[in-house]
What we know:
Layout: E1 2-8, H1 15-23, H2 25-28, E2 31-37, H3 42-51, E3 56-60, H4 61-69, E4 74-81, E5 86-92, E6 107-110, H5 116-127, E7 137-140, H6 144-153, E8 158-162, H7 163-171, E9 175-182, E10 188-193, H8 194-199, H9 201-216, H10 224-231, H11 236-245, H12 255-267, H13 277-280
Parallel strand pairs: 1-2, 1-3, 6-7, 6-8
Antiparallel strand pairs: 3-10, 4-10, 5-8, 5-9
Helix pairs in contact: 1-9, 4-12, 10-11
Amino acid sequence: MKTVNVGGVPEHFNLAWYLALKSGTFKKAGINLRWKDYYGGTGDMCKSLRNGDIDLAVILTEGIIKDIVEGNPSSIVQTFVQSPLIWGIHVAESSSYQTISDLRGKKAAISRYGSGSHLMAYINAKNNNWNLDDDLHFEVIKNLDGAIKGLSSGAADYFMWEKFTTKPIVDEGIFRRIGNCPTPWPCFVIAARNEFIEKHPDELQTILDIVNIITEDFKDIPSIDNTIANRYNQKLEDVQEWLSLTEWSQSIIDEETVITVQNQLENLGIITNQFPYNKLVKKL
């Protein structure tokens, strides 16, 4: 039985993987799939892909493209979530900041450099016509718990994270959300180390097939909204709104999207060169 290590954020987007594991489908197919939660997000997963700690990652599109361009020996093998990710822009409940414009020149909490929270701070800055050199400052906080401490203590001024994941923290009166910033592209892809793709293409295809069967009919799973609400400590109405906005994919990411992401990253000064489509994406 082939052991395959997969990483992803411990969020509702990845419930399909848990359901597949719970059903025993991977083992029936001869795959010992081991899932690892990455509370540090995309930057943390990029590091683990480089180190060979994981074989696959369910990861933010812009984050893995940036890291592959910078030398990560991995490739995108499929889009996982087709819809944009809605990043909430949060401040401490007691903060004096009321609007996004109040945050110009203030310090953003980020999980790590190269993470989604780091890259989306640039997207938000560009959307609001800020000076990318003068108006962006960062404080590394590692994870969501670190963000709570960082904003509460004043070490950082604002924090960008997926809107629905942070909603319970807003409801508790710890964070206050003052705006949203959707990604201008499909938010999650599945990436794999090139060595794994070359040596185990059949196992990789089997894994994708198993997950795709679940995501294809994910919204039709009986009481899936209640399951998500209970598992991820969310209000039922929030889960139902999230489900209405979220679309999974079973297809490869298209070349136009890859070009769009790289153009945006280069315009923001996050990458200094671009890769051709076939150096970023591997069709099985």
